[in-house]
Amino acid sequence: MVTFVNKLTVHGDFDTFLAVKDRLTAYMSAQPGHVSNQTLRHVGDPNVVLELAVWEDAAAHQRAVRSEEFQAIVKGLGPLATPDPGLYETYEAGSGAH
After folding, report:
1. What confidence tens digit (pLDDT) does each residue in 7-61 have?
2. Model pTM?
3. Can you give the residue ranges of every domain in the chain?
4. CB under 8 Å to 68, separation ≥6 — which residues?
């Protein structure tokens, strides 16, 4: 399992941002390999949102983001928010992995 974490700093209209984000989340949730999704809003800065999406593996996530439909939807976020994305794997304390 891997987790996609995207910190989004919203600088456009927040309601418009949510509409685009919700379309994107609905699309991604329907893709093969998608396990779960969660959206978090920063308590001290309501313009900062974290998107957490769990995927079966990195390859499933990559297939989803390379699709034309994903590219068309995500293009709408550009004028509304600045992303800071990353794909993470679970770190097990004491596993020796670095």
Report:
1. 999 999 999 999 999 999 999 999 999 999 999 999 999 999 999 999 999 999 9
2. 0.87
3. 2-89
4. none
Q: What is the pLDDT of residues 58-84, one digit of tens each?
A: 999 999 999 999 999 999 999 999 999
CATH number attached to the domain at 2-89: 3.30.70.100
* H helix intervals, the chain: 14-29, 58-65, 68-74
Q: Percentages helix, strand, coil for the chain, rounded to the nearest 5?
A: 35, 35, 30
Distance between CA atoms of residues 74 and 28, nearest Å? 11
- CA–CA distance, 93 with 95 (Å, rounded to integer): 6
Q: Is 21 exposed, middle or buried (0-12, 13-18, 19+ CB in 10 A)?
A: buried
